[in-house]
Each structure stands twice: as C-alpha cells, then as structure tokens.
Amino acid sequence: MKLFTTIASLVAAAEGAALGHGMDLQNVLQSVISIAQSHQSTKPPNFLFVITDDQDLQLDSVSYTPHILKHMRDKGTFFQNHFVTTALCCPSRVSLWTGRQAHNTNVTDVSPPHGGYPKFVDRGFNDNFLPVWLQEAGYDTYYTGKMFNAHTVDNYYSPYINGFNGSDFLLDPFTYSYLNSTYQRNHEPPVSYEGQHTIEVITKKAMGFLEDALEGDRPFFVTVAPIAPHSNVDPMALNHGDGERQVISMSAPIPMEKHKHLFQDVKVPRTANFNPDEPSGVSWVQGLEQQNQSVVDYGDFFYRSRLQALQGVDELVDSLVTRLEESDKLDNTYIIYTSDNGFHIGQHRLPPGKTCGFEEDIRVPLFVRGPGVPEGHVQNAVTTHIDLAPTIFQLAGIPHRSDFDGTAIPVTPGFAGPRHEHVTVEFWGSSVFEGDYSQIGIGGSTMMPNNTYKSVRLLGPGYNLYYSVWCTNEHELYDLSTDPYQLHNLYPSSLRSEEIEPQLLGRGISHTIKRLDALLLVLKSCKGSTCIKPWETLQPGQSIHTLGEALNERYDLAYSQQPEVSFNWCDTGYIIEAEGAQAPLTTRYGVPWDIWV
Ligand SMILES: *[C@@H]1O[C@H](CO)[C@@H](O)[C@H](O)[C@H]1NC(C)=O
Ligand SMILES: *[C@@H]1O[C@H](CO)[C@@H](O)[C@H](O)[C@H]1NC(C)=O
Ligand SMILES: *[C@@H]1O[C@H](CO)[C@@H](O)[C@H](O)[C@H]1NC(C)=O
Ligand SMILES: *[C@@H]1O[C@H](CO)[C@@H](O)[C@H](O)[C@H]1NC(C)=O
Ligand SMILES: *[C@@H]1O[C@H](CO)[C@@H](O)[C@H](O)[C@H]1NC(C)=O
User: Boundaries of each Sulfatase N-terminal domain copy (predicted)?
Assistant: First the structure.
C-alpha cells in the first residue's frame, strides 16, 4: 500500500517535472519504475532474534538440538568465537541491547542497587536502547519472554518497558518458575500460567507476535527469550538466609513431560578441567573441594535436565522458522540465535553456575542466517554480544552510534568494518552456585564474594590467551593454545632477575604480561572506538593493531612505565575509587607518549 502511494506521488511529481521541462513521459515513467524497484529491493530486512538463558557452547548443548542445527547451522553461519562481556544474565542483556560494555551501562548485577530493571531505568536506558532505536528507524518491534531481572509483578508499570509494539514479559519472582510462570502483556495486568509449561506458553505468544509482525507493512524485529535451560526457581521456596537477605533456591530446569525420558546415558563431557584432581585458578576456585560421586552424579542429572529443557526451545525455533518459510518474508529476514551467558557444571570443581571468566561461562552459541549469509559456514572472527546491536544497525542500514563499544560482525562476505582480536570481560560482585550441593559458599551460603575481576580474552595470529586481574590483585594468565582447559596459570608468583624467565610468544613472559596489562588498562575503562581500537590509545599514530605488533622490543621501555591494573579493595559494584589506575600514560614529561614508544 505504502509503496503504491510512493509510486503515485513520484509519478505525479515526475509528470509535473516532465511537462515543465518538455521531457519524454515514457522515459520519466521508466525511471519511476526503476526507483520503485530499487525501493522494493532495499526494503530494510526483518529480524527474528531468539535468546536462550544460560545456554553453554562449551558443554556441547547445541549438539542436542536437531532443529536448531538444521535451520540455523546448516542454513546459516556459526560464529565459533563468540563471547559475552559479562557472564551474568542482566548485565549481559543490558550490554547486548545497548551495545555497551557493562562499565559503560553501570548495570552490573541482577538486582538493585547495582543492577536489575530499576537500575536500567535509572540509567536512562528505557528511552535509549535497541528497540527504541529500531522503532525510530521504522521497525515494528515485538518481544516475549525474559527481558531483565528484578522486573517484577510490583514494578512492571513504573515505568512500562519502552520500545515495543507488542510485548509479553516474564516477571519476577515467577520468571524461572517452569510450571507456574507469570507473563505480562502490553499494559495489561500480569497473568499466572499455573500448571502450564513456560515453553508451551511462550511458544503460543511468540507465534502470535510473529503473525502480527508478518501482517504489518513495516519491517519487523521480533525477539523470543525463553528461560530454558536456566535453573528452575520456585518462588514459594524462597527461604531466609543468615541475615534478612532472601536466598533464592535454584534447582535443575524442568523439561516438558514429553522430553523427560531423553538422554538417559548422557553425562557432562569429561574434559581435563572436569572435577580435576589438582585444584587450580584464583584462590577461591583453588579452595573448592573435589566433588564426590554423589555431587558428580547430580551434575550429570542437572546437565541432562538442561538438554531436555532445551528440547522445548528446539521445537519453538522449528515452529518459528517453519512459519517464516510459509510466509513470503523469509528471504528478507535475518534470524539470530544466541544466549545471554554460558554455563559450567563441574569444571574446576565448580557446582552448576556462571559468573566466571572461564571459557564455559563466556562463550555462547551464535548462529545467524538470512540474506547473503553463507550457509553451513563457520566464522572464526572474534565477536561479542556488544557487537550485535552494531550488526543489526548495519544490516538495517542505520548509521553506527558513537556510543557503541562494539563493531558490526562479518555476517555476509562483503561486510566491511574494523575487526578486533580481543574481548573485554568484566564482573562485579559474587559468584552464585546453583542446584543441590550449592551451599559451599561463605558460611554455608550459595554465594562466593570477591568475584570482581577484569579480563581480556585474546585470539590472534599465533596466540590464544586469557589474562585477568582480580579485586584481590590476584592474576591469571592462560595460554589456551597449549592449555585449552585453563588449568595452568602462567602468571609468575614472583620474577627474580637471576632466574631464567619463562618465554611466552617468543618474549620473556614479563614483556608479554606488560602488553596484556596495558591493553586491559585501556579496555577496562574504554568508551566507543577506544574499545574497538585499544592499541591506538597505547601507541598513538603507530599503526599497531595486535598484540603481536605491540610485542616488538622497541616498545619495551614504554610499556614498562605504564601503570598496572590493580584494585584498592573488592567492591560489589563499579566504584571507580576501588579500581586503581584508570587510564594509561599518554604523555611523559609533557612529551606525547608516541615520542617515547
Ligand atoms: C555505578 O553505580 C553505582 C551504584 O550502583 C555508583 O555507586 C557508582 O558510582 C557508579 N559508577 C560510576 C562509574 O558511575
Ligand atoms: C509500532 O510503534 C511505532 C512507534 O510507536 C508506530 O509508529 C508504528 O505505527 C507501530 N506499528 C504498528 C503496526 O502499530
Ligand atoms: C502460582 O503462582 C501464583 C501467583 O502468580 C500463586 O498465587 C500460586 O500459589 C502459585 N502456585 C503454586 C502451586 O505455587
Ligand atoms: C558428597 O559431598 C556433598 C557436598 O559436600 C555432601 O553433602 C555429601 O554428604 C557427600 N556424600 C558422600 C557420600 O560423601
Ligand atoms: C574479600 O576481599 C577483601 C579485600 O577487599 C578481604 O578483606 C575479604 O576478607 C575478602 N573476603 C573473602 C570472603 O575472601
């Protein structure tokens, strides 16, 4: 309808112009038709975005979802080096929907004061995040499922979440209640779905919104955010801990009846880091006891429950893609499948959970299919959740925002733009243990405090590294090319000059560490393009883009003088005063740094 209106007005304008200038009407009509055709072929693409909750990549969950493999891996591209920037639901989702690192959203936790929906609103993001931007760009937007934590039956209307033409959100405290969920549609009151499985409920809602989206004239952005395979939380079982604080009791996810018999012999992959004989890692991880057989068996049960619960999501994706196939819009629709953070079970002796910087927690599945996206392709580029909003902008033809901390990812072969070899990983607060046997935290709680750290994950030509600095000023350095399961911390406990220094990347390890530390110093407080091109801050005008280039011994002196990443104390939020040096030196004795380097 709109297109015809456009053509009609173009014809009228062209006729007027042609008459005025004595042009041939035939030619004018020809150009009008080609304008109309190009208008049609450049109609902005639609998006279907599916985001699961706590789905791992490293524990192989994707292999158990045949429809997702068929529709997404075989028909699209698998981004095998895709990372989240904070391994916890709410901060990770806020980073995803704003395109910013958590240190630039300052939504760093799942609940107030440092996180959750109220913090998202306080920080002004309810008027300034992806769905709002997409509506402004002409999109119809729909969302069903979990949006944020601490978005509750008591605060959902103060204010309502902006940016959606249709929404039906899961609300706390019933978000993770598989058999008694509460959803809240548009501006209507919450509805309890007691006795129905949450995946059944969301499937109906998602199919309804997809129908609405397909009927509309405008391009659409539909998000479906099921909670599987997150742990089940029964709100009626909230108990009280030592203090007044409520302790949330998390149990294995509950699959649909029809999936409960599946995978009876499947166990958590027994990788080298699974319940290892030797403890390793930062002190609190090193202090975990080896799991006995009951705990290991429970981990396997928990793992199977997750795979079973994911079957509902697998069928949901099948229904959504099948409906798109039946429509005439599949050819102009990008489908994106991912999760908010990863998950570990038993690795490094950890009970079920996330919040760590290990591969299991920070790597998540990412599949993209759509116009121009290679089918059955595996992409190696390093990509992150803060790259997704810039990617959607680029695909939709919306100009890049300067407050994006990420950059569009290469979904189609011609996709240009700066790439990066690093991922900035940040965390503030406690590690949380889930399931039975999770009361191994301080004082028998399910929490381990001082889980505040900054890290950089680096994948480049000839290196595959993870470097982290903790609020306790402990350090970790893993060379994943020789130690893929992160069992050997290479960070030296002390370096004495009379000893022969171990080598890393062909240099004494202290030189490599200096570069990694300076890189992390930039990344932990970067904004916008600094987050994408951190070496330009460290070595302005030197055309350094990689660790390999920065390792040149010419720069040793300059790097040796940079302040180190450190913490003054362990805090639970992003408190600048607790976080040591904020920025690298850029001048020395008033002389610009690049003269020195
Ligand atoms: C982040 O938020 C906390 C409150 O949650 C506040 O105390 C802190 O100053 C904020 N950090 C920055 C850098 O604005
Ligand atoms: C969706 O919402 C936007 C912004 O309010 C509005 O302009 C658009 O017309 C709506 N689309 C439909 C189909 O109602
Ligand atoms: C289910 O949730 C509702 C609130 O939405 C509550 O009133 C009811 O007691 C719950 N049912 C069970 C079995 O926990
Ligand atoms: C195994 O370890 C758990 C958690 O520490 C403990 O509760 C349980 O009693 C242990 N079981 C056996 C058989 O030792
Ligand atoms: C957490 O770190 C602080 C230092 O900031 C220390 O005083 C405290 O003992 C640590 N707590 C635990 C449980 O390790």
Answer: 45-398
> What is the C-alpha to C-alpha distance for residues 372 and 331, in angstroms, rounded to an integer?
10
**Residue 454 located in a structural domain:** no
Identify the weakest region by mean pLDDT among 156-160, 569-573, 584-588.
584-588
pLDDT over 80 (residue 369): yes
Q: Mark whether 13 and 132 lie in a shared domain.
A: no
> What is the structure's pLDDT at 596?
64
Closest ligand 5 atom to the C-alpha of 471? 5
Pocket test for ligand 1, best of 111, 117, 524, 575 (most atoms within 8 A of CB): 575
Specify the pLDDT at position 10.
Answer: 45
Domain that residue 36 falls in: 2-41
Do 340 and 479 share a structural domain? no
Query: CA-to-CA distance for 210 and 45, rounded, in angstroms?
Result: 15
> Is residue 195 lining ligand 3, measured as CB closer than 6 Å?
no
Pairing label, strands 507-508, 587-588? unpaired
For the CA of 571, the closest atom of ligand 5 is 5
CA of 575 from ligand 1 middle (Å) equals 6
Residue 115: inside a domain, yes or no? yes
pLDDT value of position 217: 96
What is the rounded average pLDDT of the residues 7-25?
Answer: 44
Q: What is the CATH number of the domain that holds 316?
A: 3.40.720.10
Q: Reply yes or no on whether 89 is catalytic.
A: yes
E strands in 17-85 = 46-52, 77-79, 82-83
Select from 163, 159, 141, 139 the least CA-distant residue to 151.
159
What is the model's pLDDT at position 185?
A: 98
State if residue 591 touches ligand 3 by the CB under 6 angstroms criterion: no
Q: List the one residue out of 44, 40, 45 whose CA is nearest residue 4.
A: 40
Q: Is there a single domain that holds both residue 14 and residue 50?
A: no
Mean pLDDT of the chain: 91
Do 392 and 520 share a structural domain?
Answer: no
Q: What mean pLDDT is predicted for residues 476-502?
A: 88
**Mutate-to-test residue for ligand 4 from 289, 290, 292, highest number of ligand atoms within 8 A of CB:** 292
Residue nearest to atom 2 of ligand 2 (CA): 165
Instruction: Give the closest residue (by CA) to ligand 2 atom 9.
Output: 140
Domain count within the chain: 3
The per-residue pLDDT for 574 is 98
296 and 350 in a common domain: yes
Is the domain of 27 the same as that of 133?
no
Nearest ligand to the C-alpha atom of residue 122: 1
For residues 435 and 251, is the Cβ–Cβ distance under 8 A?
A: yes
- Does some domain include residue 21? yes
Residue 579, pLDDT score: 98
* pLDDT score of 91: 98
In a domain, 301, yes or no: yes
Evaluate if pTM is beyond 0.90.
yes
CA of 105 to the centre of ligand 1 (A): 10
Residue 103 confidence (pLDDT) above 70: yes
